[in-house]
Design a protein that fits this description.
This is Erythromycin esterase homolog. This protein is an alpha/beta fold. The protein has 16 helices and 12 strands. The strands form 2 sheets. Strands 1, 2, 3, 4, 5, 6, 7, 8, 9 and 12 form a 10-stranded mixed beta sheet that branches. Strands 10-11 form a two-stranded antiparallel ribbon. β7 and β8 form a beta hairpin. α7 runs antiparallel to α11. The N terminus and C terminus are likely disordered.
């Protein structure tokens, strides 16, 4: 009898199975469920939980080594993640340590990617890529839309270095348009909302058009055209996002998730028709929005779009949850990071029901969604963001969810620990242990 069979806990009427989760070998049922799928989306119930990062790392390593997945796409800014991509592929900063590269994540919340758990992943990815040819190395990319100024600065630096004066003029025009706002997206948003200034929409659209016309000029580097175009696309979409951020006429949540889906499609096209991708994002982005209360307000998300565009048979959505523990978060937007308690999940929630079943960490392989299941109705499902106040947790921070429709699989960690941010010094001289289980 193999290890996973020994730890098999239950079989539900819909065919769902639960397995104790202690070692990477316990992920075998998940690897079987993923099969030949090309799109695996790994969630998290918070943006500051140690175990969510380490278990996603364990799953990603197996997908890369056993199933040939080609790149990770994460809920991070493109310019910062692209520096990681260049580093792990040996194209830049080879003399640096992973922590030095990750220190470039200086936009709040810094801890999401500048943490020791990601440093361990980056170390492994760089070592894994060392023996591979350039066109087979695993990549790391950011999907998010927020990096307006950083993307413009990246284009300015790159085009100045390569003396592309024609396109450089468009970058300078765009930067000049945004300059009065002092790299503060909220100032730009307020100016647009109260119609105090003309928008910079035309400037960034002209920039994107110019970049796309000149793309063949950047073919000395296999990823140069991709990087230049993506930074220009971010300028267009970020300007639109911030222009509408304070209004009610445009759904900025949908703008953001459609941007992330478009970026994912651009990356899949770049890597070829057989490319396989691992996505790391919060549950609110990777869990199918159609099976939450998001559908009432017309919100969509990446998980829904991937299922619709790529097909459910080629997509596996893996949600994550916790009953209690500790987390890194801020009291409000831009506040200093702090380690906070996660109280016991409220009664009747998915997490409370799972804890009542067993305090073991577990993997759920969810069954046929049309059949009876303990989680087949709408139940509260914990969701903690970068801003978190535990005292108000039971009045909010829960998303009504049909678990066995929102996800294909679910990882439950009964009690979690906080992430280890790079911008905090480790205790003593020792780097925090980031792999609490055997490889």
């Amino acid at each position: 009898m193999d290890n996973s069979t020994k730890q098999h806990l239950s079989l539900e009427p819909d065919g769902s199975r639960q397995f104790v989760l202690r070692h990477t070998a316990d992920l075998d049922p998940l690897m079987d469920r993923i099969g030949d799928a090309h799109h695996v989306l790994l969630g998290e119930a918070t943006h500051g939980t140690h175990e969510f990062y380490t278990w996603r790392t364990a799953i990603s390593k197996r997908l890369i080594t056993e199933k040939g997945f080609r790149f990770l796409a994460v809920e991070g800014d493109w310019p910062d993640c692209y520096r990681i991509n260049r580093y792990i592929k040996g194209y830049a900063d080879s003399d640096k340590q992973p922590a030095d590269v990750l220190a470039g994540f200086d936009r709040w919340p810094t801890w999401m990617w500048a943490n020791w758990e990601i440093a361990a992943l980056v170390t492994w990815l760089k070592a894994h890529n060392t023996s591979l040819p350039a066109n087979k190395r695993v990549g790391f990319y950011g999907l998010d839309v927020y990096s307006l100024w950083e993307s413009l600065d990246s284009l300015m630096s790159y085009l100045s270095e390569h003396t592309d004066h024609d396109v450089l003029a468009y970058v300078k025009d765009a930067i000049s348009c945004f300059q009065p706002y002092d790299a503060n997206e909220h100032r730009y948003a307020r100016a647009q909302h109260y119609q105090l200034d003309h928008s910079c929409q035309e400037a960034v659209i002209e920039l994107l058009t110019a970049i796309r016309k000149r793309a063949p000029r950047y073919d000395h580097d296999p990823e140069a055209s991709l990087n230049a175009e993506q930074n220009a696309v971010i300028a267009v979409n970020a300007e639109r996002y911030y222009r509408h951020m304070l209004g009610f006429d445009v759904n900025t949540w949908n703008l953001r998730d459609r941007h992330m889906m478009d970026t994912l499609n651009r990356l899949l096209h770049f890597h070829g028709p057989d490319a396989k991708v691992i996505v790391w994002e919060h549950n609110t982005h990777i869990g199918d929005a159609r099976y939450t209360d998001m559908v009432r307000t017309g919100d969509i998300n990446v998980g829904q779009l991937v299922r619709e565009e790529k097909g459910e048979a080629d997509t596996v959505l893996v949600g994550f949850g916790t009953y209690q523990g500790r987390v890194i978060a801020g009291d409000n937007w831009g506040a200093p990071m702090a380690e906070k308690d996660i109280p016991q999940a409220k009664e009747g929630s998915i997490e409370a029901l799972m804890h009542r079943q067993s305090a073991e960490d577990r993997l759920l392989i969810l069954g046929h969604p049309d059949h009876e299941h303990p989680f087949s109705g709408y139940l509260p499902h914990r969701a903690i963001g970068v801003v978190y106040e535990p005292v108000y947790e039971k009045r909010g921070n829960y998303v009504p969810t049909v678990l066995n429709r929102r996800y294909d699989c679910f990882v439950f960690i009964d009690e979690t620990r906080a992430l280890h941010p790079l911008h905090r010094q480790p205790d003593g001289a020792k780097i925090p242990e980031t792999y609490p289980f055997t490889y």
